[in-house]
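Need DNA endonuclease SmrA's 3D structure for a figure. Predict it.
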Amino acid sequence: MSDKNEFELFREMMSDVAPIEQDTVEDQAGPHSPTEAQLARQYAAQRLAHSNPEYLSLDYATMVKPDDVMAYKRDGVQDGVFRKLRLGKYDINARLDLHKMSLEKARDEILRFLKQCQRMDVRTVIIVHGKGERSNPPAMMKSYVCQWLQQISDVLCFHSALRHQGGSGALYVMLKKSQEKKLETRERHLSHRA
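Structure prediction for DNA endonuclease SmrA:
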């Protein structure tokens, strides 16, 4: 059977079919009002966007050991990108050293540093937290830093550094592009297509 015959047969079979009129959808009057959960998420996201350090807790962190190798990768980060970060193959464009800082000062500095890096389109950084072999409890700063970085949505992934860059006392950290840089890239891409 040829394509033309199939098409004619289809049209013949569908000749008595009429579109159904949709009359069961109610028209929503007024704007949509968000649920409490949506408002809470929106509020949390706004707090993060404004670098409010209060959402990063100073009360509790899952404790790690001084020599533990730390690794974290958000869903959606490609394995090849993470492997390259782990192997120290990205250029490190900025460095933050947290030695001799209190937890509160370190928390504030991390947020300030990461926001500044993002504004300057710096995507790969190193944060030196130390191993904390002499702290009480051991590795306290390291434990908090790793927990905080997982809570910061702009952090894509991190991994303990190579030995010559601090080993288990430092982290390579990869950041998302800032919203402004994403818009610039999108606009540049659209202007090239036009």
